[in-house]
């Protein structure tokens, strides 16, 4: 079945399809029941699957994460929703100290096949603490997977894969594009690979790597570049941990130029890891220094100034031009 | 004007007093009583051996449970194998009764992850070092049991210091909301490393913290196997019969350092320790058994011999266990080793 969906609708479809085929899948989070979540990602699911499988949790993020760890270790497939990424921090104890290492510290006796979902990123004029992009915190942690979809089709396939995974997955949803783009999605219950970057457009002149809402800006930049005769290869990183560096290296070998665009602050961001690995394994391919287009090394500004913080197509274009002119 | 009042009450239970005199009408079959006694002695000998191994460089940091053996012994004895224990790190008596091997416990404290692999115990969670975090696993596990309609119970153990953490309250709140088959056992051993109970909480009991979640709670003398047996039996029955959670505060005294890395003489007054030593659970039960001619010196000697022999054999197995290869640190991280880690895996393999 094919359907034209927004990203958040694709999330709902993935949750529904996972729940319909596996009764171990349990959703837990704040306001996810009747209200369907503050972004409506779980809309209608409690009506379909009941209160036992779609749990309106008490207002305690650490509880949500710890309960999910306990459920997962005893054979359920919990999918926990955190209302905003800025509120996931109380759950970090459970995610880092337990979810990420349950399999390792029991030598495989217990595991934690849980998904920790959270809307992330800025761009919607939300209040303080509602616009975080701190994915690098999680990408630093061994034992978890960190996945960021950037289109309805990938949201559907990647979430199915995350739920099916035996590993804990932090699944970050770019809320700026929850409803900004619509796309035909094939609802065939087929998961996408969780450890693979996607080449969205082939090109020979420059490689652009991005993820989340920034990827949409990178797409705009790529189109403008094409009209100027510059053929960019656009890579949707999708899974930021484990990192599929091979796809990036293969591309950079061809293009000789790399621009990385992400919304998170620059220092210690995932872009830094990509740049380091390309320098380690592909320095000889490079015809120009690697460019990063990122948020600034500051607290996410209140929304009056967020437009100046966020990377956009114009900034990406400027970076590409500077690398082309090097 | 007052529209309504909500009265609360916490009962504190004791059957076997400090002088080993039994009061009230609760009884435990003699063979059970003897088994409990023998296991408490065995656990103390195991603890002593573990400390000796640490002092001679053959074990890492180890937390003794001296003086608190009754709590974990009665718990381990009453729990069914298919129940789930969410322990902290002073539960060795319970672990051993649940099928965890002595050499596994030694491996854990000896720096080997295989110590958590529990070949004979598939369900239990491993030792939880981050304080109180295990309470949240317990409610998640209990929810899973309830969802699967299985009549099994989950037990989380925690120290009195741990009850200061939000995790404890969050877990109790959720357990009560869904009437989960879970028991929270607080070992109030009076000391959280060097912080005494008087600086931990202003409440008269730790059990009363359960009132905030509307969970039935009771305080028991943690050195009295009868009171522990009574409370834990009742709590487990409640769990099996889907009647909801229970909180038990067992009052004991930490007659040992926090761990081998600690020196309690810096902060526990010797007089307090001496006074507590007179109330400790093993001596108390031994005196009762001997006074009632259920146990004698000859049996005691035999127990010490048998137990020491078993412990020494386990120590041998622990010491002779071949080390894990260096690359094992990556092998269990994910269900399958990601391609991104192949280089690091190869590098570690080369380290052998």
- Label the overall shape of chain B: globular
In terms of per-residue confidence, which ranges of chain A show pLDDT below 50 for 5 or more consecutive residues? Answer: none
Largest sheet of chain B: 6 strands, parallel
Most strands sheet of chain A: 7 strands, mixed
Helix amount of chain A, in percent?
25-40%
Q: Determine the fraction of residues in helical runs of chain B and give it as a percent range.
A: 40-55%
The most extensive contact between chains is: A-B, 45 and 43 residues
| Distance between the amino and carboxyl termini of chain B | 77 Å
Please give a quick description of this structure.
By secondary structure, chain A is of the alpha/beta class. Helix content of chain A is 36%, strand content 20%.
Chain-wise SSE layout:
The complex is a heterodimer of chains A (326) and B (352).
Chain A: E1 2-5, H1 7-21, E2 25-29, H2 45-49, E3 54-56, H3 61-73, E4 77-81, H4 92-97, H5 102-105, E5 115-120, H6 135-139, E6 145-147, H7 152-164, E7 169-174, E8 183-186, E9 198-201, E10 206-210, H8 213-227, E11 232-236, E12 239-241, H9 245-255, E13 258-265, H10 270-282, E14 291-295, H11 306-309, H12 313-325
Helix pairs in contact in A: 1-7, 8-12, 9-10
Chain B: E1 12-13, H1 30-55, H2 69-78, E2 84-86, H3 92-97, H4 102-109, H5 133-147, E3 154-159, H6 166-177, E4 182-188, E5 191-192, E6 195-196, H7 197-200, E7 217-221, H8 225-240, E8 246-251, H9 270-277, H10 281-291, H11 297-320, H12 328-331, H13 342-349
Helix pairs in contact in B: 1-2, 1-10, 1-11, 2-8, 4-11, 5-6
Any overview of this molecule?
Chain A has 326 residues and is of the alpha/beta class. Chain A contains 12 helices and 14 strands. In chain A, α8 (213-227) links the parallel β10 and β11. Chain A starts with a strand and ends with a helix. Chain B has 13 helices and 8 strands. In chain B, α6 links the parallel β3 and β4 (182-188). In chain B, α2 runs parallel beside α8 (225-240). Chain B is globular and about 75 Å long. At the A-B interface, α3, α4 and α5 of A face α5 and α6 of B.
């Amino acid at each position: 079945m094919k359907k034209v969906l927004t990203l958040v609708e694709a999330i709902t479809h993935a949750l529904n399809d996972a729940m319909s085929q596996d009764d171990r899948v349990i959703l837990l989070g704040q306001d996810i029941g009747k209200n369907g979540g503050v972004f409506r990602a779980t809309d209608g699911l409690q009506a379909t699957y009941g209160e036992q499988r779609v749990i309106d949790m008490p207002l305690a993020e650490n509880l949500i994460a710890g309960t999910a760890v306990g459920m997962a270790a005893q054979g359920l497939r919990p999918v926990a929703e955190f209302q905003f990424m800025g509120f996931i921090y109380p759950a970090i104890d459970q995610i880092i100290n337990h979810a990420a290492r349950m399999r390792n510290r029991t030598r495989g006796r217990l595991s934690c096949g849980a998904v920790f979902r959270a809307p992330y990123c800025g761009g919607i004029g939300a209040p303080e603490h509602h616009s975080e992009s701190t994915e690098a915190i999680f990408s630093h942690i061994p034992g978890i997977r960190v996945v960021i979809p950037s289109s309805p089709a990938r949201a559907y396939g990647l979430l199915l894969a995350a739920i099916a995974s035996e590993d804990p997955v932090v699944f970050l949803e770019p809320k700026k594009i929850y409803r900004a783009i619509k796309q035909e999605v094939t609802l065939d219950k087929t998961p996408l690979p969780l450890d693979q970057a996607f080449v969205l457009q082939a090109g020979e002149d420059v490689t652009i790597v991005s993820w989340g809402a920034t990827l949409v800006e990178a797409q705009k930049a790529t189109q403008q570049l094409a009209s100027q005769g510059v053929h960019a290869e656009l890579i949707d990183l999708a899974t930021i941990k484990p990192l599929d560096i091979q796809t990036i290296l293969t591309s950079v070998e061809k293009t000789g130029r790399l621009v990385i665009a992400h919304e998170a602050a620059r220092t210690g961001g995932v872009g830094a890891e990509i740049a380091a690995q390309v320098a380690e394994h592909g320095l000889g391919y490079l015809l120009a220094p690697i460019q990063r287009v990122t948020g600034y090394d500051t607290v996410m500004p209140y929304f009056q100034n967020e437009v100046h913080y966020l990377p956009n197509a114009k900034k990406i274009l400027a970076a590409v031009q500077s690398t082309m002119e090097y | 004007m007052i529209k309504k009042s909500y009265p609360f009450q916490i009962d504190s239970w004791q059957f076997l007093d400090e002088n080993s005199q039994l009061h009230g009408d609760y009884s435990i079959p003699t063979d059970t009583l003897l088994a409990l006694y023998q296991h408490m002695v065995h656990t103390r000998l195991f603890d002593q051996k573990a400390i000796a191994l640490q002092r001679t460089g053959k074990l890492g940091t180890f937390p003794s449970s001296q003086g608190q053996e009754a709590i974990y012994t009665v718990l381990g004895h009453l729990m069914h194998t298919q129940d789930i224990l969410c322990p902290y790190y002073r539960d060795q008596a319970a672990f051993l009764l649940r099928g965890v091997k002595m050499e596994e416990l030694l491996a854990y404290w000896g720096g080997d992850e295989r110590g958590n692999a529990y070949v004979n115990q598939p369900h239990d969670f491993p030792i939880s070092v981050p304080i109180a975090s295990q309470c949240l696993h317990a409610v998640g596990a209990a929810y899973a049991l309830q969802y699967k309609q299985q009549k099994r119970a989950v037990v989380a153990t925690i120290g009195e210091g741990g009850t200061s953490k939000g995790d404890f309250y969050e877990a109790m709140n959720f357990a009560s909301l869904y009437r989960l088959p879970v028991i929270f056992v607080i070992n109030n051993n009076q000391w959280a490393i060097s912080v005494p109970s008087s600086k931990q909480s202003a409440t008269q009991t730790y059990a009363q913290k359960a009132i905030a979640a509307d969970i039935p709670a009771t305080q028991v003398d943690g050195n009295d196997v009868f009171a522990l047996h009574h409370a834990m039996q009742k709590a487990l029955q409640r769990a099996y019969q889907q009647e909801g959670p229970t909180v038990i505060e067992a009052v004991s005294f930490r007659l040992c350092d926090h761990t081998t890395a600690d020196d309690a003489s810096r902060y526990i007054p010797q007089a307090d320790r001496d006074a507590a030593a007179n109330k400790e659970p093993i001596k108390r039960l031994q005196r009762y058994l001997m006074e009632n001619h259920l146990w004698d010196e000859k049996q005691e000697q035999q127990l010490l011999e048998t137990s020491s022999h078993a412990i020494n054999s386990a120590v041998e197995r622990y010491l002779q266990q071949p080390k894990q290869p260096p690359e094992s640190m990556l092998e269990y991280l994910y269900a399958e080793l990601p391609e991104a880690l192949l280089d690091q895996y190869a590098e570690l393999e080369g380290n052998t």
